[in-house]
Design goal:
Mean pLDDT: 85
Order of helices and strands: EEHHHHHHHHHHHHHHH
Number of helices: 15
Largest sheet: 2 strands, antiparallel
Radius of gyration: 22 Å
Strand order of the largest sheet: 1-2
Strand content: under 5%
Distance between the termini: 36 Å
Structural class: mainly alpha
Length: 464
């Protein structure tokens, strides 16, 4: 790494940008819109829960449990978007524009098909799924109706997710932000009306909240498709012949390992919370509060990783491997610096931030100590997000998946139990285990990136 490579503002530094037909793409012109979009997506569920909390804790519990199931399917839908992004980027980099547009078209059809199939199955089996979550009997009817509506009609969410990913792959990160803003505004206003301004609706307020969410997603989906067609007229959604098995295979080849990795990590977090129950409610509560605060460090790191990956995909398609390598190594330093500053800032304000959630002195003391340790977690996470996304963008997907599963369960979970429970370090021990997991994964994936094996994984060489 040369010293001049670290200059992130110089127009003469080739690592600061890639040139496309639509203009120049830089790390920060991609990063800022992606971050805003991720914040808005997280905000949508929070708004619904907050508004319902003004009415009933039972309703919040019903929506909360059903939302956990909904979140799982939303994460599954991103599998198609992630796969499509990589395939489109590499084809655009190789100037195979027709193949790129065919991939976009196939991704939309695939999203609608999978979203519709899942919707039908969940509509039929919603109650057994909710009962698996061990929800109290009196709360089950509301949770079932919420799940049937939100997942039953989630084909719109699936298509919207893919359309946004396609827009980003083509270099337009602004449209997803605009659509997310409109969707959030409609959801917030509609939810408020359902709960506070409509006493004569022929349905429960939980069902009303769910319907508002679906209508918001439907409007956002249609708007995103219109904007996508307007910005990229080469994408023809009437072209059913673009649904080629080889393209679907390429999309899933990238997306499925990433989806497995995401589900594995989410599951491990649930297990770690279960481990903490042995330490008492103070530890569990502290973890929930700290996690909600440091989530924003994660969003910053993840957005930077996605921005870097969009550029890496284009460069791999162009077979500019050396520039992709140097750009990722340079962007690693940028990510680590931003993560360190952000996490340290949160740590310095830890008592104030935790005070928004609780006044319990034990929770405040425990959470404050954990947020110091979290600085190291975020540094490791920064390396992970940089290299996981870069390796995925290059087509090297199985290695990050295997390393993530092995480290998450072999380090994070096992050491959480050993350090937190057996050695009596409590929540601090668990957070040390999280830091070891993130740092180890980041180091291993950095070595993978340095090895150059990813250069042989490009889809362009294997696609017909």
């Amino acid at each position: 790494m040369k010293l001049k490579d670290l200059n992130i503002f110089s127009k003469k530094n080739e690592l600061n940008m890639i040139v496309t037909e639509k203009g120049k793409l830089t790390l920060f012109t991609l990063f800022i819109p992606i971050l805003i979009e991720m914040l808005l997506k997280n905000l949508m569920g929070t708004v619904s829960v907050f508004i319902m909390s003004r009415i009933s804790d039972d309703a919040v519990a019903s929506i909360g449990v059903a939302s956990q199931v909904l979140t799982m399917f939303v994460q599954f839908y991103t599998v198609i978007g992630i796969g499509a992004t990589v395939v489109i980027n590499q084809n655009l980099g190789a100037k195979r524009r027709k193949r790129a547009s065919e991939t976009a078209e196939a991704a939309i059809y695939l999203s609608f098909f999978i979203g519709s199939l899942i919707g039908i199955l969940i509509t039929i089996f919603a109650e057994p799924v909710i009962r698996i979550m061990q929800l109290e009997e009196r709360l089950i009817p509301d949770a079932v109706i919420y799940l049937q509506i939100t997942v039953g009609l989630s084909a719109f969410q699936a298509v919207m997710s893919s359309a946004m990913a396609i827009s980003r792959a083509y270099g337009n990160t602004v449209y997803p932000v605009i659509v997310s803003l409109i969707m959030n505004a409609f959801n917030a206003v509609g939810s408020y009306f359902v709960v506070f301004c409509s006493s004569n609706l022929p349905l429960s307020k939980v069902a009303g909240i769910a319907i508002v969410r679906i209508i918001s997603e439907m409007i956002a989906c249609l708007l995103m498709l219109v904007l996508l067609k307007r910005a990229f007229p080469q994408i023809c959604l009437k072209n059913i012949r673009s649904f080629k098995l080889q393209i679907v295979k390429d999309i899933l080849q990238i997306g499925i390992p990433n989806g497995i990795m995401t589900i594995s990590y989410s599951t491990s977090q649930t297990v770690s919370t279960a481990i903490l129950t042995a330490l008492g409610t103070v530890a569990v509560s502290a973890k929930i509060y700290v996690t909600n605060i440091v989530l924003y460090s994660y969003l910053v790191s993840s957005s930077l990783g996605q921005a870097n990956a969009l550029m890496v995909g284009r460069l791999v398609g162009q077979q500019e491997y050396e520039k992709a390598y140097r750009m990722t190594m340079r962007n690693l330093f940028v990510t680590l610096f931003i993560n360190a500053v952000f996490a340290s800032s949160l740590a310095m304000m830890r008592l104030t931030l935790l005070g928004f959630f609780t006044e319990d002195a034990k929770i405040l003391g425990l959470g404050a100590g954990v947020m110091i340790i979290d600085i190291f977690v975020e540094l490791g996470r920064g390396a992970n997000n940089t290299f996981e996304n870069a390796l995925t963008a290059s087509g090297d997907t199985r290695f990050p998946m295997i390393i993530s599963i092995c480290s998450t369960w072999g380090i994070s979970i096992i050491f959480s139990y050993v350090l937190g429970v057996k050695l009596g370090l409590g929540l601090r021990g668990c957070w040390i285990a999280f830091a070891l997991d993130e740092i180890l994964r980041g180091f291993i994936q950095m070595e993978r990136w340095k090895s150059g094996i990813w250069k042989r994984k490009s889809l362009i060489k294997s696609s017909n």
